[in-house]
Amino acid sequence: MSASASPPLTTPAPWFRFAPAEPSTSRRVPLWAHLVLWALLLLSDGLEIWQQLTHDKPGAAGQYQAVLRTLGRGLLYDLLYAGVFYLNWRELIPRLLARGRVALYALGVVLLLTLFVSLRVGISMSFFPDAPGIRPRTMVQRIVPYSITGLMMVFLSSALKVTGDYLRGQRRRRELERQQLLTELALLKMQVNPHFLFNTLNNIYSLASQKSDRAPEAILRLAELMRYMLHDSAADTVPLPQELQHLHSFLELQRLRLPATGPAPIVFDTSALEAEAAPAIAPMLLLPLVENAFKHGDLTARPVVSIRLSQPADGSLHFVIDNAVADPAAGPALEQPGGVGLTNLRRRLQLLYPGRHRLDIDATPVRYRAALTLLPATPAQ
């Protein structure tokens, strides 16, 4: 996948832009925002009543009526504050600020505060005048604090809206990244199958051109391998014995190409492995290294390829494959530009075993050795 095909997930956006939301839910106020708003409003009312009860003498005349009056006034003002909060959240932000219309949003806030202050002053002077004996407040003394509290409610609404949209955008970004990784893994796995099939068909063609009696058996082995790829390799992980059975089938297919006489051409040592107790493994993860050994190895050497799979005491898996190089002048085949083998394998390891793998390549003019270690997952992973 080219870098240009990936969306700019980490590109910074202006502060006034929000994560896109569905049209039917972009103005919805989540439950947690309702709870935060009304908790603050009711807490403020409760503190005011507590202060009044503390300052008044117990049993003072009219104390009960004063508390009810304070509570009624507080609830009425709470409705005004809530109106500012919800109008800013549901109307001004999605219609203006989220679309980049900052000047219109500022004008909308001014109009909203003007309406709030007007209603607050009107209600205060009409229904809750200053107590007798207290110097009446001037209009400026009313407008300024009311404007400040109204503006604070606008800030609270905007802050909670920005926070909610940011968190929702982060969740969507993580989901998009996860989907991209799954898509990339699927593409990498699709690359493995044609690459393997192409090489195997070349082998079968070689047997058929020699009119070898082994050609039908090779076709049968290929059918078994393709059945595994179609039905089992779609899973994220497979049991290690199942993956080893797949490798054994592949090795049997390769043995058909080699002379039947002489020392064993293939050594596959799993004596240091408890396969039943081994962890699951990503399907066809080991195949590229094995396939490469036969594609570019010296088929006249004995053994042609030596494979060892072990499980140390720390629970990791250690896979080593060693083969002679058929053409020393060609260099390490897996490192060739444009090759599917090592590039594909490294990327799958990065996606499937981040921070839990080690792939070491040791190439000489006559030998090629690859060692892959898969470390066990930690609780944090």
Task: Give a brief rundown of this model.
With 381 residues, the chain is α+β, with helices and mostly antiparallel strands.
What would your notes on this structure say?
This protein is an alpha+beta fold and 381 residues long. The protein has 2 domains: 14-175, no CATH class; 212-374, 2-Layer Sandwich (Heat Shock Protein 90). It has helices at residues 31-55, 63-95, 102-127, 139-209, 215-231, 240-255, 287-296, 341-352; strands spanning 266-269, 305-310, 317-324, 357-363, 367-374. A hairpin with a 6-residue loop joins strand 2 and strand 3 (317-324). It is rod-shaped and about 115 Å long. This is Histidine kinase.
| Uncertain stretches | 1-25, 330-338
Number of domains: 2
* SSE pattern, N- to C-terminal: HHHHHHEHEEHEE
Could you tell me the strand content as a percent range? 5-15%
Query: What general outline do the C-alpha atoms trace?
Result: rod-shaped
Q: Bin the helical content.
A: 55-70%
Main sheet summary: 5 strands, mixed
What structural category characterises the helix and strand content? alpha+beta
CATH-defined superfamily of the largest domain: Histidine kinase-like ATPase, C-terminal domain
Radius of gyration: 37 Å
State the strand order across the main sheet.
1-2-3-5-4
* CATH architecture call of the largest domain: 2-Layer Sandwich
Give the end-to-end Cα distance, rounded to a whole number of Å. 26 Å
Averaged pLDDT, please?
78
**Number of DSSP E strands:** 5
The CATH class of the largest domain: Alpha Beta
Return the CATH topology of the largest domain.
Heat Shock Protein 90
